[in-house]
Every structure is written in C-alpha cells, then in structure tokens.
Amino acid sequence: MRIRTDGNNDRPSQGRTEAGWTPGGAVADPPVPAAVLELRSALTSILASSEILRDYPDMPEVERARFLEAVIAEGKRLDRMVSRMVERSEFNCSAEADPV
User: Where does the chain have alpha helices with state H?
Assistant: First the structure.
C-alpha cells in the first residue's frame, strides 16, 4: 500500500486502485475458497443442531430424531469434503514431486 503524504492514510490515493481495497476505501478480506464456505456451513449446522438437542432435553422424540439425523448427515458431508481435500492435496504433492 502506498502511504499518502497529505495525512490521509486511511485509503489509497484518489483515482488509483490497489489490491486489498474496496471502492469505498475499506480494507477487503482476501477471497475465501468455496470449500471453506462449505466446511463452515456443515459445521454451523452440526453446532446448531447439537445446541438445540442440549438446550431442549424434553423435545419430542420425532424432533430429536430429526436433529440427530441432521448432525449425522452433516458429519458425513464434512467427512467426504475433508477426504476429497486430502486426496487432492496428495495428488498435488505427488504431481509436484514427480515432474512428467
């Protein structure tokens, strides 16, 4: 980032764009890969369902079963995502180690 000499260093110089800055001058977060968003989605579902089960012990069995199934399904989804990430990582590592 370029430092301005006019004492206004909270945004880049007028008319210039720089990586990491939004048009309004706020610092932008780096892009988040879709896989991370998917992992967070599954974790959020698992945590929410688990907290509901903990906080409402007298919940009817039908509802309790529905939340438990959600926890199991999201846990399996997380397992598949992580397995795919590991496989891709291993593939990329072996591709880098053994140039063709």
Answer: 34-55, 61-97
